[in-house]
Amino acid sequence: MLSWSLGRVPFATRLAGRIFSDPMRYATGKPLERWLMLIDLASRKLVFANDPKVVETVMLDRAGQFPKSAVVHDLLKPLIGGGVFGQPGGASVKETRRIFSRSLATIPDEEVRRVTEAITADYLDRWLAAPGGQVAISEELSRLTVDIVSHCTLGDRFDADQSLRFTRLFFAFHRKAAPLVLMLAGQDERARARVMRDMGIEEIGGEMRALMRERFVTPLINGDRPLETAPFALALAEAGRLEPGLAGEEALLDEIAVMLLAGHETTASTLSWLSYELAGRPELQDATAAALAGRTEGEGFWGAADPDSIADALAREALRIYPPIGFFLREAQEDIVFRTKPVPAGSFVLVAPWTLHRHQKLWWRPDDFSPRRWLEGGPAPARTSYMPFGMGARGCPGARFADIEMAAILRGLLARARLTLVPGTRPKPLGNLTSRPDKEIMLRLSERSRT
After folding, report:
1. C-alpha dihedral, 154 to 158 to 164 to 165, nearest 10°
2. Is the pLDDT of residue 303 over 50?
3. Could you tell me which of 85, 236, 360, 377 has the fewest CB atoms within 10 Å of its CB?
4. H or E segment at 177?
Protein backbone atom coordinates (compact mmCIF):
# COMPACT_ATOMS: atom_id res chain seq x y z
CA MET A 1 0.00 0.00 0.00
CA LEU A 2 2.78 2.44 0.92
CA SER A 3 4.73 1.64 -2.23
CA TRP A 4 1.59 2.18 -4.33
CA SER A 5 0.90 5.51 -2.61
CA LEU A 6 4.45 6.76 -3.19
CA GLY A 7 4.06 6.14 -6.91
CA ARG A 8 0.62 7.69 -7.35
CA VAL A 9 -0.44 10.03 -4.56
CA PRO A 10 0.68 13.69 -4.82
CA PHE A 11 2.81 14.87 -1.89
CA ALA A 12 3.25 11.27 -0.64
CA THR A 13 7.03 11.51 -0.93
CA ARG A 14 7.08 14.80 0.94
CA LEU A 15 4.89 13.40 3.73
CA ALA A 16 6.92 10.18 3.98
CA GLY A 17 10.10 12.26 3.98
CA ARG A 18 8.92 14.13 7.06
CA ILE A 19 8.07 10.92 8.87
CA PHE A 20 11.20 8.99 7.85
CA SER A 21 13.68 11.85 7.50
CA ASP A 22 15.83 10.83 10.47
CA PRO A 23 17.42 7.37 10.07
CA MET A 24 19.27 7.85 13.37
CA ARG A 25 16.04 7.71 15.36
CA TYR A 26 15.72 4.02 14.44
CA ALA A 27 19.30 3.22 15.51
CA THR A 28 18.70 3.51 19.25
CA GLY A 29 17.43 1.10 21.88
CA LYS A 30 17.33 -2.51 20.68
CA PRO A 31 19.77 -2.07 17.76
CA LEU A 32 22.39 -1.09 20.35
CA GLU A 33 21.75 -4.25 22.40
CA ARG A 34 20.98 -7.08 19.98
CA TRP A 35 23.22 -8.99 17.61
CA LEU A 36 20.61 -9.34 14.85
CA MET A 37 17.19 -7.89 14.07
CA LEU A 38 14.82 -8.65 11.19
CA ILE A 39 12.33 -5.92 10.32
CA ASP A 40 9.45 -6.22 7.84
CA LEU A 41 9.29 -3.39 5.32
CA ALA A 42 6.67 -2.77 2.67
CA SER A 43 7.88 -5.43 0.25
CA ARG A 44 10.91 -7.12 1.80
CA LYS A 45 12.89 -7.57 4.97
CA LEU A 46 15.58 -5.41 6.51
CA VAL A 47 18.31 -7.19 8.47
CA PHE A 48 20.04 -5.07 11.12
CA ALA A 49 23.37 -6.87 11.64
CA ASN A 50 25.67 -6.37 14.64
CA ASP A 51 26.89 -9.94 15.12
CA PRO A 52 30.65 -9.97 14.37
CA LYS A 53 30.49 -13.05 12.13
CA VAL A 54 27.53 -11.70 10.17
CA VAL A 55 29.18 -8.29 9.79
CA GLU A 56 32.37 -9.91 8.49
CA THR A 57 30.44 -12.12 6.06
CA VAL A 58 28.53 -9.17 4.63
CA MET A 59 31.33 -6.61 4.49
CA LEU A 60 34.06 -8.91 3.13
CA ASP A 61 31.52 -10.50 0.76
CA ARG A 62 33.93 -13.08 -0.58
CA ALA A 63 31.20 -14.84 -2.58
CA GLY A 64 29.69 -11.68 -4.05
CA GLN A 65 26.34 -12.26 -2.33
CA PHE A 66 25.93 -8.78 -0.81
CA PRO A 67 26.43 -6.01 -3.40
CA LYS A 68 25.84 -2.38 -2.53
CA SER A 69 22.12 -1.67 -2.61
CA ALA A 70 20.51 -0.09 -5.65
CA VAL A 71 19.11 2.50 -3.22
CA VAL A 72 22.64 3.86 -2.76
CA HIS A 73 23.16 3.99 -6.52
CA ASP A 74 19.87 5.81 -7.10
CA LEU A 75 20.52 8.41 -4.42
CA LEU A 76 24.07 9.15 -5.57
CA LYS A 77 23.50 9.06 -9.34
CA PRO A 78 22.39 12.73 -9.59
CA LEU A 79 25.79 13.67 -8.14
CA ILE A 80 28.27 11.09 -9.37
CA GLY A 81 26.56 9.55 -12.40
CA GLY A 82 28.25 6.22 -13.03
CA GLY A 83 31.06 6.93 -10.55
CA VAL A 84 32.56 4.01 -8.68
CA PHE A 85 31.14 4.86 -5.26
CA GLY A 86 27.56 4.18 -6.35
CA GLN A 87 28.23 0.89 -8.14
CA PRO A 88 27.35 -2.50 -6.61
CA GLY A 89 30.65 -4.25 -7.33
CA GLY A 90 32.43 -6.33 -9.95
CA ALA A 91 35.78 -6.35 -11.72
CA SER A 92 35.46 -2.84 -13.16
CA VAL A 93 34.72 -1.40 -9.74
CA LYS A 94 37.73 -3.16 -8.24
CA GLU A 95 40.01 -1.81 -10.94
CA THR A 96 38.67 1.73 -10.54
CA ARG A 97 39.23 1.58 -6.81
CA ARG A 98 42.82 0.51 -7.50
CA ILE A 99 43.21 3.58 -9.71
CA PHE A 100 42.00 5.75 -6.84
CA SER A 101 44.48 4.10 -4.50
CA ARG A 102 47.39 4.39 -6.94
CA SER A 103 46.73 8.06 -7.65
CA LEU A 104 46.61 8.90 -3.93
CA ALA A 105 49.78 6.89 -3.32
CA THR A 106 51.68 9.14 -5.77
CA ILE A 107 51.04 12.17 -3.54
CA PRO A 108 53.75 12.21 -0.81
CA ASP A 109 52.54 12.41 2.78
CA GLU A 110 54.64 15.52 3.27
CA GLU A 111 52.92 17.21 0.34
CA VAL A 112 49.48 16.45 1.81
CA ARG A 113 50.65 17.87 5.14
CA ARG A 114 52.20 20.98 3.55
CA VAL A 115 49.12 21.79 1.46
CA THR A 116 46.80 21.19 4.41
CA GLU A 117 48.80 23.44 6.72
CA ALA A 118 48.99 26.26 4.16
CA ILE A 119 45.29 26.24 3.23
CA THR A 120 44.23 25.84 6.86
CA ALA A 121 46.30 28.90 7.80
CA ASP A 122 44.51 30.94 5.11
CA TYR A 123 41.12 29.84 6.37
CA LEU A 124 42.04 30.61 9.97
CA ASP A 125 42.97 34.16 9.00
CA ARG A 126 39.46 34.62 7.64
CA TRP A 127 37.68 32.83 10.48
CA LEU A 128 39.42 34.84 13.17
CA ALA A 129 38.52 38.06 11.36
CA ALA A 130 34.81 37.13 11.09
CA PRO A 131 32.31 39.50 12.79
CA GLY A 132 32.04 38.46 16.42
CA GLY A 133 34.30 35.53 15.65
CA GLN A 134 31.26 33.46 14.69
CA VAL A 135 31.92 30.71 12.18
CA ALA A 136 29.58 28.18 10.57
CA ILE A 137 32.12 25.45 11.25
CA SER A 138 30.53 22.56 9.34
CA GLU A 139 30.17 24.62 6.18
CA GLU A 140 33.64 26.10 6.52
CA LEU A 141 35.33 22.76 7.14
CA SER A 142 33.61 21.42 4.04
CA ARG A 143 35.02 24.29 2.00
CA LEU A 144 38.46 23.78 3.52
CA THR A 145 38.60 20.04 2.87
CA VAL A 146 37.27 20.37 -0.69
CA ASP A 147 40.10 22.83 -1.34
CA ILE A 148 42.71 20.48 0.10
CA VAL A 149 41.51 17.41 -1.81
CA SER A 150 41.09 19.23 -5.11
CA HIS A 151 44.48 20.98 -4.82
CA CYS A 152 46.29 17.70 -4.10
CA THR A 153 44.50 15.49 -6.63
CA LEU A 154 43.45 17.88 -9.40
CA GLY A 155 45.92 20.76 -9.10
CA ASP A 156 43.26 23.46 -8.65
CA ARG A 157 40.60 24.82 -6.29
CA PHE A 158 37.16 26.41 -6.55
CA ASP A 159 37.11 30.16 -6.29
CA ALA A 160 35.43 31.59 -3.17
CA ASP A 161 31.95 31.95 -4.70
CA GLN A 162 32.03 28.50 -6.26
CA SER A 163 33.25 26.96 -3.02
CA LEU A 164 30.43 28.47 -0.97
CA ARG A 165 27.80 27.49 -3.52
CA PHE A 166 29.15 23.95 -3.83
CA THR A 167 29.11 23.24 -0.11
CA ARG A 168 25.66 24.75 0.42
CA LEU A 169 24.26 22.70 -2.43
CA PHE A 170 25.80 19.57 -0.93
CA PHE A 171 24.18 20.29 2.43
CA ALA A 172 20.80 20.77 0.69
CA PHE A 173 21.34 17.46 -1.12
CA HIS A 174 21.95 15.72 2.21
CA ARG A 175 18.78 17.10 3.72
CA LYS A 176 16.59 16.09 0.78
CA ALA A 177 18.03 12.64 0.07
CA ALA A 178 15.85 10.14 1.95
CA PRO A 179 17.10 6.54 1.77
CA LEU A 180 14.35 5.20 4.05
CA VAL A 181 11.63 6.53 1.76
CA LEU A 182 13.31 5.01 -1.29
CA MET A 183 13.63 1.69 0.56
CA LEU A 184 9.91 1.79 1.41
CA ALA A 185 9.06 2.39 -2.25
CA GLY A 186 10.09 -1.21 -2.79
CA GLN A 187 10.62 -2.54 -6.30
CA ASP A 188 7.78 -0.59 -7.90
CA GLU A 189 9.61 1.32 -10.66
CA ARG A 190 6.88 3.94 -10.86
CA ALA A 191 7.10 4.59 -7.12
CA ARG A 192 10.89 4.76 -7.16
CA ALA A 193 10.93 7.17 -10.10
CA ARG A 194 8.39 9.46 -8.45
CA VAL A 195 10.22 9.41 -5.13
CA MET A 196 13.46 10.40 -6.84
CA ARG A 197 11.74 13.17 -8.78
CA ASP A 198 9.88 14.52 -5.75
CA MET A 199 13.00 14.62 -3.56
CA GLY A 200 14.39 17.39 -5.75
CA ILE A 201 17.95 16.08 -5.61
CA GLU A 202 18.38 15.71 -9.36
CA GLU A 203 18.35 19.50 -9.84
CA ILE A 204 20.82 19.99 -6.99
CA GLY A 205 23.11 17.30 -8.34
CA GLY A 206 22.98 18.85 -11.79
CA GLU A 207 24.12 22.23 -10.49
CA MET A 208 26.94 20.66 -8.47
CA ARG A 209 28.12 18.72 -11.51
CA ALA A 210 28.09 21.93 -13.56
CA LEU A 211 30.40 23.57 -11.02
CA MET A 212 32.81 20.62 -11.10
CA ARG A 213 32.71 20.47 -14.88
CA GLU A 214 33.52 24.19 -15.23
CA ARG A 215 36.34 24.25 -12.69
CA PHE A 216 38.04 20.89 -13.13
CA VAL A 217 36.86 18.84 -16.11
CA THR A 218 36.76 21.35 -18.97
CA PRO A 219 40.29 22.73 -18.35
CA LEU A 220 41.70 19.19 -18.36
CA ILE A 221 39.77 18.15 -21.47
CA ASN A 222 40.76 21.32 -23.35
CA GLY A 223 44.41 21.05 -22.30
CA ASP A 224 44.29 24.34 -20.38
CA ARG A 225 45.62 22.41 -17.39
CA PRO A 226 48.15 19.62 -18.06
CA LEU A 227 47.26 16.19 -16.75
CA GLU A 228 50.64 16.09 -15.01
CA THR A 229 49.38 18.72 -12.54
CA ALA A 230 46.35 16.56 -11.66
CA PRO A 231 47.54 13.20 -10.25
CA PHE A 232 44.08 11.67 -10.18
CA ALA A 233 43.17 12.57 -13.77
CA LEU A 234 46.63 11.41 -14.87
CA ALA A 235 46.08 8.03 -13.21
CA LEU A 236 42.75 7.66 -15.03
CA ALA A 237 44.43 8.55 -18.33
CA GLU A 238 47.29 6.08 -17.79
CA ALA A 239 44.73 3.36 -17.12
CA GLY A 240 43.01 4.11 -20.43
CA ARG A 241 39.92 5.55 -18.75
CA LEU A 242 39.80 8.88 -20.60
CA GLU A 243 37.92 8.18 -23.81
CA PRO A 244 37.61 10.94 -26.43
CA GLY A 245 34.39 12.87 -26.86
CA LEU A 246 31.42 13.46 -24.60
CA ALA A 247 31.52 9.94 -23.12
CA GLY A 248 35.08 10.44 -21.91
CA GLU A 249 34.23 13.85 -20.48
CA GLU A 250 31.25 12.44 -18.56
CA ALA A 251 33.28 9.52 -17.24
CA LEU A 252 35.99 11.90 -16.02
CA LEU A 253 33.36 14.09 -14.35
CA ASP A 254 31.81 11.05 -12.64
CA GLU A 255 35.05 9.95 -11.03
CA ILE A 256 36.18 13.49 -10.16
CA ALA A 257 32.82 13.89 -8.42
CA VAL A 258 33.52 10.75 -6.40
CA MET A 259 37.01 11.92 -5.49
CA LEU A 260 35.85 15.37 -4.36
CA LEU A 261 32.67 14.33 -2.57
CA ALA A 262 33.92 11.20 -0.82
CA GLY A 263 37.39 12.69 -0.34
CA HIS A 264 36.25 15.75 1.56
CA GLU A 265 33.00 14.78 3.25
CA THR A 266 34.23 12.19 5.74
CA THR A 267 37.00 14.47 7.00
CA ALA A 268 34.77 17.55 7.15
CA SER A 269 32.02 15.70 9.00
CA THR A 270 34.39 14.17 11.55
CA LEU A 271 36.22 17.44 12.21
CA SER A 272 32.91 19.29 12.57
CA TRP A 273 31.85 16.97 15.38
CA LEU A 274 35.29 16.98 16.97
CA SER A 275 35.27 20.80 16.98
CA TYR A 276 31.84 20.73 18.57
CA GLU A 277 32.96 18.32 21.30
CA LEU A 278 36.11 20.34 22.06
CA ALA A 279 34.18 23.63 22.11
CA GLY A 280 31.90 22.16 24.78
CA ARG A 281 34.86 20.90 26.84
CA PRO A 282 37.17 23.91 27.36
CA GLU A 283 39.52 22.12 29.78
CA LEU A 284 40.04 19.25 27.34
CA GLN A 285 40.47 21.72 24.49
CA ASP A 286 43.11 23.76 26.31
CA ALA A 287 44.97 20.66 27.48
CA THR A 288 44.96 19.34 23.93
CA ALA A 289 46.18 22.63 22.44
CA ALA A 290 49.07 22.70 24.92
CA ALA A 291 49.96 19.04 24.35
CA LEU A 292 49.91 19.36 20.55
CA ALA A 293 52.21 22.38 20.86
CA GLY A 294 54.56 20.48 23.19
CA ARG A 295 53.83 22.76 26.16
CA THR A 296 52.61 20.19 28.70
CA GLU A 297 53.99 20.18 32.22
CA GLY A 298 53.79 17.08 34.38
CA GLU A 299 51.30 14.37 33.58
CA GLY A 300 48.23 16.55 32.89
CA PHE A 301 45.13 15.33 31.08
CA TRP A 302 47.04 13.46 28.39
CA GLY A 303 49.73 12.00 30.63
CA ALA A 304 52.96 11.26 28.80
CA ALA A 305 51.34 10.76 25.41
CA ASP A 306 53.15 12.31 22.45
CA PRO A 307 51.40 14.83 20.16
CA ASP A 308 50.91 12.38 17.29
CA SER A 309 49.24 9.86 19.59
CA ILE A 310 46.99 12.57 21.04
CA ALA A 311 45.86 13.75 17.60
CA ASP A 312 45.25 10.13 16.62
CA ALA A 313 43.23 9.42 19.77
CA LEU A 314 41.02 12.45 19.22
CA ALA A 315 40.39 11.50 15.61
CA ARG A 316 39.64 7.88 16.50
CA GLU A 317 37.15 8.85 19.17
CA ALA A 318 35.41 11.34 16.89
CA LEU A 319 35.24 8.64 14.22
CA ARG A 320 33.82 6.22 16.77
CA ILE A 321 31.10 8.49 18.16
CA TYR A 322 30.32 10.12 14.81
CA PRO A 323 31.30 7.63 12.08
CA PRO A 324 31.14 9.60 8.81
CA ILE A 325 29.17 6.88 7.06
CA GLY A 326 26.64 5.70 9.61
CA PHE A 327 25.10 2.91 7.52
CA PHE A 328 26.35 0.49 4.87
CA LEU A 329 23.36 -0.85 2.93
CA ARG A 330 23.67 -4.13 1.04
CA GLU A 331 21.19 -6.49 -0.65
CA ALA A 332 21.16 -10.27 -0.26
CA GLN A 333 21.29 -11.97 -3.67
CA GLU A 334 20.44 -15.43 -2.35
CA ASP A 335 18.52 -16.97 0.53
CA ILE A 336 20.79 -17.19 3.56
CA VAL A 337 20.57 -17.98 7.27
CA PHE A 338 21.98 -15.63 9.91
CA ARG A 339 22.01 -16.83 13.54
CA THR A 340 19.35 -19.48 12.70
CA LYS A 341 17.07 -16.84 11.14
CA PRO A 342 16.22 -17.24 7.44
CA VAL A 343 16.93 -14.17 5.32
CA PRO A 344 15.23 -14.32 1.90
CA ALA A 345 16.92 -13.14 -1.28
CA GLY A 346 16.23 -9.48 -1.99
CA SER A 347 16.41 -8.49 1.68
CA PHE A 348 18.23 -5.32 2.68
CA VAL A 349 21.17 -6.04 4.96
CA LEU A 350 22.29 -3.09 7.07
CA VAL A 351 25.72 -2.93 8.71
CA ALA A 352 25.78 0.24 10.75
CA PRO A 353 28.99 1.69 12.20
CA TRP A 354 26.65 4.01 14.09
CA THR A 355 25.40 1.06 16.18
CA LEU A 356 28.58 -1.04 16.09
CA HIS A 357 30.58 1.86 17.54
CA ARG A 358 28.04 2.31 20.35
CA HIS A 359 26.97 -1.27 20.93
CA GLN A 360 26.66 -2.03 24.63
CA LYS A 361 28.29 -5.44 24.29
CA LEU A 362 31.30 -4.13 22.38
CA TRP A 363 32.35 -0.97 24.23
CA TRP A 364 32.88 0.30 27.76
CA ARG A 365 30.68 3.36 28.36
CA PRO A 366 29.95 3.55 24.64
CA ASP A 367 28.08 6.89 24.70
CA ASP A 368 30.92 8.80 26.40
CA PHE A 369 33.26 10.94 24.32
CA SER A 370 36.46 9.60 25.87
CA PRO A 371 39.52 9.93 23.60
CA ARG A 372 41.84 8.59 26.31
CA ARG A 373 40.32 5.14 25.78
CA TRP A 374 42.68 4.86 22.79
CA LEU A 375 45.76 5.49 24.93
CA GLU A 376 45.10 3.32 27.96
CA GLY A 377 46.75 0.17 26.70
CA GLY A 378 43.65 -2.02 26.61
CA PRO A 379 42.97 -4.60 23.92
CA ALA A 380 42.30 -3.22 20.46
CA PRO A 381 38.64 -3.30 19.45
CA ALA A 382 37.52 -6.17 17.27
CA ARG A 383 37.75 -5.17 13.63
CA THR A 384 34.01 -5.59 13.17
CA SER A 385 33.27 -3.24 16.08
CA TYR A 386 35.23 -0.28 14.70
CA MET A 387 35.05 0.39 10.98
CA PRO A 388 34.68 4.12 10.25
CA PHE A 389 36.03 3.68 6.72
CA GLY A 390 34.39 0.34 5.94
CA MET A 391 36.07 -3.03 5.66
CA GLY A 392 37.56 -5.28 3.04
CA ALA A 393 37.69 -4.51 -0.68
CA ARG A 394 35.21 -1.64 -0.25
CA GLY A 395 37.28 0.06 2.46
CA CYS A 396 38.09 3.72 1.86
CA PRO A 397 41.19 4.08 -0.40
CA GLY A 398 41.77 7.59 0.96
CA ALA A 399 42.00 6.68 4.66
CA ARG A 400 45.72 7.50 4.88
CA PHE A 401 45.22 10.85 3.13
CA ALA A 402 42.35 11.65 5.53
CA ASP A 403 44.42 10.76 8.60
CA ILE A 404 47.22 13.15 7.64
CA GLU A 405 44.79 15.89 6.64
CA MET A 406 42.71 15.62 9.80
CA ALA A 407 45.73 15.75 12.12
CA ALA A 408 47.19 18.78 10.32
CA ILE A 409 43.90 20.70 10.40
CA LEU A 410 43.41 19.92 14.09
CA ARG A 411 46.92 21.08 14.98
CA GLY A 412 46.57 24.27 12.99
CA LEU A 413 43.13 25.05 14.40
CA LEU A 414 43.98 24.56 18.07
CA ALA A 415 47.35 26.28 17.76
CA ARG A 416 45.68 29.56 16.83
CA ALA A 417 42.05 29.47 17.96
CA ARG A 418 39.98 28.85 21.06
CA LEU A 419 36.58 27.37 20.23
CA THR A 420 33.42 28.16 22.19
CA LEU A 421 29.83 27.16 21.56
CA VAL A 422 27.29 29.70 20.36
CA PRO A 423 24.03 29.07 22.28
CA GLY A 424 21.36 27.44 20.15
CA THR A 425 19.75 24.15 19.19
CA ARG A 426 21.88 21.06 19.74
CA PRO A 427 22.81 19.58 16.34
CA LYS A 428 22.25 15.91 15.54
CA PRO A 429 23.83 13.71 12.88
CA LEU A 430 21.76 13.80 9.71
CA GLY A 431 22.42 10.22 8.67
CA ASN A 432 20.86 10.24 5.20
CA LEU A 433 24.17 9.89 3.36
CA THR A 434 26.78 10.74 5.98
CA SER A 435 26.75 11.80 9.63
CA ARG A 436 27.17 15.53 8.98
CA PRO A 437 25.16 17.74 11.36
CA ASP A 438 21.49 18.31 10.57
CA LYS A 439 21.84 21.96 11.59
CA GLU A 440 24.83 24.21 11.21
CA ILE A 441 27.29 24.15 14.13
CA MET A 442 27.99 27.75 15.03
CA LEU A 443 31.20 28.30 16.97
CA ARG A 444 32.96 31.42 18.17
CA LEU A 445 36.68 31.49 17.41
CA SER A 446 39.08 33.75 19.26
CA GLU A 447 42.86 34.09 19.15
CA ARG A 448 44.57 31.65 21.46
CA SER A 449 47.40 32.99 23.60
CA ARG A 450 50.69 31.42 22.54
CA THR A 451 52.41 31.88 25.88
Report:
1. -90
2. yes
3. 377
4. none
Lowest mean pLDDT among 276-290, 345-359, 389-403: 389-403
- Number of residues that this document lists for the chain: 451
Span 281-302, average pLDDT: 84
396 is in an annotated binding site: yes
Is the Cβ–Cβ distance between 422 and 311 less than 8 Å? no
Tell me whether strands 348-351 and 45-49 are parallel, antiparallel or unpaired: parallel
Provide the pairing of β-strand 341-343 with 328-331.
unpaired
| Entry pTM | 0.92
220-230 per-position pLDDT tens digit: 999 899 989 99
| Domain 2-447, CATH homologous superfamily name and number | Cytochrome P450 (1.10.630.10)
**Nearest CA-CA partner of 318 in 361, 271, 259, 262:** 271
Strand, helix or coil at 449?
A: coil
pLDDT of residue 1: 46
User: Rounded distance, CA 244 to CA 248, Å?
Assistant: 5
In the chain, where the domains are located = 2-447
Residue type, 158: F
